[in-house]
Design goal:
- The structure is a single chain.
- Strand 2, helix 2 (about 40-50) and strand 3 form a beta-alpha-beta unit.
- This protein has about 280 residues and is of the alpha/beta class.
- Strands 3-2-1-4-5-6-7-8 form an eight-stranded mixed β-sheet, with helices on both faces.
- The protein has two domains: about 5-165, Rossmann fold (3-Layer(aba) Sandwich), CATH 3.40.50.720; about 175-260, ProC C-terminal domain-like (ProC C-terminal domain-like fold, Orthogonal Bundle), CATH 1.10.3730.
- The longest helix is centred in the C-terminal third of the chain and has 30 residues, at about 250-280.
- The protein has helices at about 10-25, 40-50, 60, 75-80, 105-110, 140-155, 165-175, 175-195, 200-220, 225-230, 235-245, 250-280, and strands spanning about 5-10, 30-35, 55, 65-70, 95, 115-120, 130-135, 155-160.
- Bound molecules: NADPH dihydro-nicotinamide-adenine-dinucleotide phosphate and (2S)-3,4-dihydro-2H-pyrrole-2-carboxylic acid.
- (2S)-3,4-dihydro-2H-pyrrole-2-carboxylic acid binds next to helix 7.
Length: about 280
């Protein structure tokens, strides 16, 4: 049976997931409905581009929904959930993609024994290539988890973690991950310009280098370190380049980047809990 999805929040992550679900034909646009806080322009854009329905009436939003996907920022969790509470029932499966926010916090805000699956996708969902992690909340059954896993497998790979706390690490590594890669590409583009390549050639060369390396990592049994060493001729160009990266402690910086992002996920979850405590 065709599933119906309601999105609470109409930002970049909601759009990436929608685009992926529609492309995979897991969800039909007419079976998706989306809301946000205030931007009419954004809702009109999504309606025109994808053919989805839009509304800010909670009852209309939740009436037919099988999955209710929480795609607002963690700080907006309470204000986003509050108007939905009277219309949320145990037959809804809540899917939260909010960084750092625990399933327990969501259940506490709602005040009902509702199934919640916490999911951390990334924006590559838009092209069916998300690296998604997920865990189930206290009132979600293995069947609920399986249903959400099936949904997200249409937009990429899914790792189910036993301990929900591990989703902070999934966030630091893979949720934020695309941004690290884009940052690297920005640097490669700047370098290409400075060393005299035109934009079109540089774009193609960078893209193919990334795709080729990703494919090698995926298909080859060799470790990344071995693959790196195979590129690095003694006394050659790669060695000279890598020495510069080591001088700037690039690897350490990347490790620290992922740790700091992981920690930020924990902070976002704690900030919401404090916000909830201050409101009671
Ligand atoms: N971007 C990413 O790569 C990823 C994001 N996430 C998570 O996804 C969530 C959304 O992120 P992102 O899409 O980047 O954020 P955006 O800022 O792009 O979008 C947030 C959306 O939430 C809406 N919103 C805010 N308050 C409410 C409310 N009270 N009721 C209904 N809607 C509301 C906003 O509406 P309006 O504009 O009208 O205020 C906006 O449409 C976050 O929790 C983030 O942690 C998870 C994985 C990856
Ligand atoms: O930056 C953020 O907080 C969100 C969560 C993961 C990716 N973007």
């Amino acid at each position: 049976m065709t599933k119906k999805v309601a999105f609470i929040g109409a930002g970049s992550m909601a759009e990436a997931m929608m685009a992926g679900f529609f492309h995979s034909q897991m969800i039909e646009p007419r079976h998706a409905i989306i809301s946000n806080r205030s931007s009419d322009e954004r809702l009109t854009f999504l309606q025109d581009k994808y053919g989805v329905r839009t509304t800010r009436y909670p009852q209309a939003l939740l009436a037919d929904a099988d999955f209710v996907v929480l795609t607002m920022k963690p700080k907006d969790a309470v204000s986003g959930l509050a108007p939905l509470i009277p219309y949320l029932h145990e037959h809804h499966i809540l899917v939260s993609v909010m960084a750092g926010v625990s399933t327990a916090s969501i259940v506490d805000v709602i005040g009902k024994k509702i199934p919640v699956i916490r999911v951390m996708p990334n924006t590559s969902a838009a092209v069916g290539k998300s690296a998604t992690g997920m865990a189930k909340g206290a009132y979600a059954t293995p069947q609920h988890l399986e249903a959400v896993k099936e949904l997200f497998q249409t937009i990429g790979t899914v790792a189910v973690v036993d301990d929900e706390e591990q989703l902070h690490a999934v966030t630091g590594l893979a949720g934020s991950g695309p941004a690290y890669i884009y940052y690297l590409v920005e640097a490669m583009e700047k370098a290409a310009s400075e060393i005299g390549l035109n934009r079109e050639d540089a774009k193609e060369l960078i893209l193919q280098t990334l795709i080729g390396s990703a494919q090698m990592l995926k298909n080859s049994p060799k470790a990344p370190e071995t693959l790196r060493k195979e590129v690095t001729s003694p006394g050659g160009t790669t060695e000279a380049g890598l020495k510069e990266l080591q001088k700037h402690q690039c690897q350490e910086a990347f490790i620290q980047c992922i740790k700091v992002a992981t920690n930020r996920s924990k902070e976002l979850g704690e900030a919401l809990r404090n916000q909830m405590l201050n409101q009671t």
